[in-house]
Amino acid sequence: MDTYDVAVVGAGPAGAVAAGFLAAEGARVVLVEKSSLPRRKVCGGGLVRRAAAMLPTDIATVVERKCSRVELTIGSRPLRFLATRQEPVILMVERERFDYLLVRKARRQGADIRSSCTVRGLRPGAGHVDLETSRGGIRAGFVVAADGALSKVAGLAGWQDTRRMAVAVECTLPMAACRLKRFSHAAGFDFGAMPGGYGWRFPKKNRLGIGVVSMLPRPINLKGTLRRYMELLGLGNQEGCSLRAGLIPVSPRTDGFVKGRVLLTGDAAGLADPLTAEGLSHAVSSGRLAAEALLETGFEPQHIRRIYHLKLKARILDELKIARFFANLIFFHPRITNMLFSLWGQDFVEGVTDIACGRTTYRILFRNPMNYIRLFGTRAAANFR
After folding, report:
1. pLDDT value at position 154?
2. How many CB atoms within 10 Å of residue 306?
């Protein structure tokens, strides 16, 4: 049985960043991935600038398009808003190439990589955790679970699923340059495309990524919704387009993020933004924070739970609380939202764009009560406080 200080399960951004950071600091680390690498991932592929700034390596070789403009529509009219920055707001990537770039960086930093390696069992021991995998046993002092929305490690370690899930369906349309030009200047978000969710359109190198996400607790026909959204954009219903579906956890787990010697990160922890469903920023951040918590406590399990939670609260959890307030308003109170956006929509779009760019945070933006009173009215502000 191979022995490591840390076994990281899942080779997405959270796992690759955690593994690379730990290995660079001298820890013995193995990064375990169930698929062969590089592997495909259901994701719109929009990497906001704040996430790119946190990465341990330059990603210029995998960026397919840079969008310095964000278009947003909301409501049945709909209301239209445009935010423009001098620097890119969103970098368009294909997750297959982007994730593999981060994995290769983790390998160069000293992490062992085991692909096509499925975790089949987890057994806590005295001072270690044993993983049973399809490629043999692994003994590790700690396990970092970065294995996504359907985290097998979380289930094996005893977590009950208390996260709220959004459901997304997407496809990628190959497009000639002349046809793509209509969409190529901006990343688009259409909150008027469907109730309780939104549609997105992300221009890539010679393709258009398009999808819809539903925040509703009840199931809806998302495939039909996506077809109608494409028709709304003048693209036809694209019957031959291959559709891909995925789950996005848009609320954190309520039973903690550490059990024994197992830490949860990214979607496994439920850290996607409930307003935008953007998960890459907090995946990268939580991977780094989990690694920091292990290193700063000297791999002492009695302190890791508290330290990791404090780090998550300061950097992510308090942000998600504020985002959740606005998500509930926008997705589930359309009449109020239409009224408020008709008055202050541009201010809100500019603020959220600055958050995506890493210029500010939800907490800073709305720390002054006058900010959200101006944006969403006295009653909404009172409910928020």
Report:
1. 98
2. 12
Crossing angle for the helix pair 318-332 and 369-384, nearest 10 degrees?
Answer: 70
Task: Give pLDDT tens digits for 306-357.
Answer: 999 999 999 999 999 999 999 999 999 988 998 889 998 999 999 999 999 9
The H-assigned helical ranges of the chain are 13-24, 49-53, 95-108, 152-157, 177-180, 222-232, 266-269, 280-296, 301-312, 318-332, 334-356, 362-365, 369-384
Residue linked to tokens 């959740």: 324
d(CA 199, CA 260): 40
Q: Give tens-digit pLDDT for 51-84.
A: 999 999 999 999 999 999 999 999 878 899 999 9
Tokens 């369906």 belong to which residue?
Answer: 169
Which tokens in the block code for residue 255? 């039973």
Name the CATH code of domain 2-65+92-163+252-319 (choices 3.50.50.60, 1.10.3540.10, 3.40.50.300, 3.90.1720.10).
Answer: 3.50.50.60
> Which pLDDT does position 114 carry in this prediction?
97
Given this chain, do its domains 2-65+92-163+252-319 and 165-249 carry the same CATH topology? no
Please state which CATH number belongs to domain 165-249: 3.30.9.10
For residue 126, give every residue at least 6 positions away whose Cβ sits within 8 Å of its Cβ, in sequence order, or none: none
Query: How many other C-beta atoms can be found within 10 angstroms of the C-beta atom of residue 335?
Result: 8
State percent of the chain over pLDDT 90: 77
